[in-house]
């Protein structure tokens, strides 16, 4: 409860920050998107609180609604700034939690934010986990978002339990292979089988595929040889605070 109260105050006091991690096209080497990642530098302890702590607590308490809104607004505001500076990558990616996705007014809220920031829908990508995809209303909401032109990526792909057939019926543009499957690549036979299966399935379904958690050149060579489209990970860049991602975008221009 102490943490919950502190989080509530953190929203009011505007204490959260977004870090950004770039996603690269393997063919061109260019940045195709940056993913917004939530951080809370706690003023009282000096600790950097991570999403794994923040998000579950906010989902339980309902704080995810104002926090999720803050994240969307901030990410789009930053993107709009990059457009004015002429350093904007093709897209900004924002994580949406399951509970946040259930809100009935999400589509309208996103439409208003895009309009306020003069962003095209195609410049926003939402990262949803498989757990979001289970219900009829979620399916309708995804179609409404995709209808606006928003890109939808499935995050942490492979760790959920959902059947794969749903992918055929949903307006998804990208699969993000969960970083746990990159561990031990290419020696780990099980992970190798999973990564290759996802890449091949993505190709059959005409989806983009991105590998998360790429940490070394061996993994990079392996992924390139298997036809993975995009990569994200410490080999390329850690998640960076605003000033640092802006410097990186400037250099990559
Ligand atoms: O930044 P870090 O790698 O610790 O993030 C861990 C997880 O938290 C990631 O899988 C990411 O999807 C999730 N996450 C990060 N930022 C946000 C956010 O703003 N909202 C939601 N719902 N999840 C986030
Ligand atoms: O899947 P999710 O959206 O949670 O992924 C983003 C998280 O993964 C961030 O918290 C980020 O700090 C972390 N991350 C990003 N790149 C790497 C990497 O190369 N290795 C590891 N171990 N974690 C990474
Ligand atoms: Na994510
Ligand atoms: Mn992920």
UniProtKB/TrEMBL annotation:
This is cyclic-guanylate-specific phosphodiesterase. Residues 1-253 form the EAL domain. The chain holds residues 455 to 707 of 707 of the full protein.
């Amino acid at each position: 409860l102490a943490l919950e109260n502190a989080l509530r105050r953190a929203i009011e006091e505007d204490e959260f920050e977004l870090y950004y991690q770039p996603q690269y096209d393997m063919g061109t080497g260019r940045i195709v998107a940056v993913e917004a990642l939530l951080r809370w530098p706690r003023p009282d302890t000096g600790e950097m609180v991570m999403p794994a702590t923040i998000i579950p607590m906010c989902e339980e308490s309902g704080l995810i609604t104002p926090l999720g809104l803050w994240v969307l607004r901030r990410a789009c505001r930053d993107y709009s700034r990059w457009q004015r500076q002429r350093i904007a990558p093709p897209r900004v990616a924002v994580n949406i939690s399951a509970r946040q996705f259930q809100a009935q007014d999400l589509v309208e809220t996103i439409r208003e934010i895009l309009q306020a920031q003069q962003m095209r829908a195609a410049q926003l990508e939402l990262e949803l986990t498989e757990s979001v995809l289970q219900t009829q209303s979620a399916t309708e909401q995804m179609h409404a978002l995709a209808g606006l032109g928003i890109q939808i990526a499935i995050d942490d792909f492979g760790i959920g339990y959902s059947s794969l057939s749903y992918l055929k019926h949903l307006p998804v543009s990208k699969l993000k292979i969960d970083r746990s499957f990159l561990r031990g690549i290419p020696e780990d036979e099980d992970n190798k089988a999973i990564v290759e299966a996802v890449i091949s399935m993505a190709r059959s379904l005409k989806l983009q595929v991105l590998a998360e958690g790429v940490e070394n050149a061996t993994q990079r060579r392996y992924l390139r040889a298997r036809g993975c489209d995009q990569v994200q990970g410490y080999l390329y860049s850690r998640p960076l605070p605003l000033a640092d991602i802006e410097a990186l975008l400037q250099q990559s221009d």
